[in-house]
């Protein structure tokens, strides 16, 4: 089995579950930025896990071809960039990002959840049904 198919079979269900969770429980997800803003350092263990996972993805699949598997490449680089930003940016920058007005709108969470769930569904299709 090709590694992009294996990665799509793993990342697809993660995206689908995550997207559905954000979509179905948008009000609860909307509380997370304020939680991170209150306790900035409590997020460090998750940021470390994201840094490791991003590095693994970038090293496992870093192919920039226009196909459905480019989602894997973009995921790896996005996770890596986000975790590097979290570790290297001053706390004031992180707090400024958490204050973005878009994070206060519930529609953002519905939209983001739907997009991530659709991406997960497409990866599931590519990972499990396309031979």
Question: Care to describe what's here?
Answer:
By secondary structure, the chain is an all-alpha fold. The chain has one domain. Helices cover 77% and strands 0% of the residues. The protein has seven helices and no strands. The protein has helices spanning 3-24, 26-29, 32-38, 44-60, 70-88, 91-98, 106-129. Helix 4 runs antiparallel to helix 5 (70-88). The longest helix is centred in the last third of the chain and has 24 residues, at 106-129. The protein is globular and about 45 Å long.
Taken in chain order, the helices and strands follow as HHHHHHH
Average pLDDT, all residues: 88
Number of helices: 7
The biggest beta sheet reads:
none
Structural domains: how many: 1
What is the distance, rounded to the nearest whole angstrom, between the alpha carbons of the first and last residues? 9 Å
Instruction: Tell me the β content.
Output: under 5%
Radius of gyration: 16 Å
